[in-house]
Amino acid sequence: MSTMSQTRLNTKATVQPTRSPAQARPKSRKQLGYTALGIALLAVMLFPVYWMVNASLQPSGNTLTATFFPWNPDFGGYEKAIADQGGNLITSLIIAVGTVILSLAIAAPAAYALAQFRFRWINIALLVIIISQMIPGIVIANALYSAYNDLGMLNSIPGLILADATHAIPFAILILRSSMMGIPPSIVEAARIDGAGLFRAFFSVVVPVSKNSLITAGLFSFLFSWSDFLFALTLTTTETVRPVTLGIYQYLGTQVSNWSAVMATAVLSSIPAIILLIIAQKYIAAGATGGAVK
Predict the structure, then answer these.
(1) What's this model's pTM, rounded to 2 decimal places?
(2) What is the pLDDT of residues 170-190, one digit of tens each?
(3) Which of 19, 68, 92, 98 could disulfide-link to 161, CB 3.0 to 4.6 Å?
(4) b (16+ CB within 10 A) / e for 138-157
């Protein structure tokens, strides 16, 4: 290669287009404006959460005289909330974990069948699943109340787990199916050739590959059950089984003069959901879009 050619190549490699300060300034101002707008919208959306925490730390228990910042925080509301609602929090946790286990145990095999099998009734089954999510919850709650009354399942944790699972399973099937449609049948066939049965191939191959979507479906099932109020109100008639959502509702009638305890209960009931969302956020992003691109 000649010296002139080498010089031209070096010149092309080193010369880069540059932007003038006048061109860079409007873009930086525009980005700064978008950032400021985003921060303002985030502050507006998170202000109720902040005020809930602030009110829970007020020593007087009256939100009308609460200051904007709790300069003298008082944790008496949390002590009362734990004493009065601690059992309800544990009940809600048991129901939510049971709902996750039951929902994934039913939704995962069903989603894999709807994703991999090629039958004419698949589209009909998907339509039925979508329609089931359109049924008002009060209709399902009334039907379950009549059935539970005959079966003796009112005021029971298994009854609430089954009721919450009816709301979580259809959504979990749709999430899992979109992910499992991207699983190559060849890897399952390879496991079958190696001697694995249908169930062994499913649990050893399909479940690990679908980890992100399983975590996503499980998290939403947990949130559905944790925030349930309608089934808890309809299917419990005594105080033997009381989820925290129903506990807060009944708490309002007796603690109207001590809002710090009510807000402390709300803060405590928000902690499990916040922790799970923070831990599983990367799995949610991957699981929600697992079947979008093939």
Answers:
(1) 0.80
(2) 999 998 988 888 888 888 888
(3) 98
(4) eebbeebbeebeeeebbbbe
